Automatic annotation (TrEMBL):
Keywords: Ribonucleoprotein, Ribosomal protein. It holds the Pfam family Ribosomal_L31e. Component of the large ribosomal subunit. The ribosome is a large ribonucleoprotein complex responsible for the synthesis of proteins in the cell. This is Large ribosomal subunit protein eL31. InterPro entries: Ribosomal_eL31 (IPR000054), Ribosomal_eL31_dom_sf (IPR023621). GO terms for biological process: cytoplasmic translation. It comes from Loxodonta africana (African elephant).
Length: 123
């Protein structure tokens, strides 16, 4: 998970959620859409990706890359991929009207093999 504020440290400091962080992660789509109707597979893939990214990064704003949408819809609305490898990153927001300082960006990472996927933190 992304670094969060530690309660064990003796001094008070600012939250680590303000940091800009990126990491690659494997999104298990098959678990999240199990039991869903056939025609709701690909749309729910994108929703579950947003929910997963919000839990992991802790920021409500989200920018989805088109490569992620293309990967979700690659096999059609019914036959959704089991896993998608994505890069979750927190970035500074340039919009002045936005109440949030950071937004999360989710992009699809092409992978040669899906055997033994690992989560990789990038700083």
């Amino acid at each position: 998970a992304f670094p969060t504020w530690s309660r064990n440290s003796g001094k008070k400091g600012c939250s680590a959620i303000s940091e800009v962080v990126a990491r690659e992660d494997t999104l298990n789509i098959h678990e999240s859409i199990h039991g869903m109707g056939f025609k709701k597979g690909a749309p729910w893939t994108l929703r579950e990706t947003q929910i997963f990214a919000m839990k992991e990064t802790g920021t409500p704003d989200m920018h989805t890359d088109t490569r992620l949408s293309k990967a979700a819809w690659a096999k059609g609305i019914r036959h959704v991929l089991h896993c998608i490898h994505g890069q979750l990153s927190r970035e500074h927001s340039d919009a002045e009207k936005s109440p949030n300082k950071l937004y999360r960006s989710v992009t699809c990472v092409p992978v040669t093999t899906s055997q033994n996927p690992q989560t990789v933190s990038e700083n």
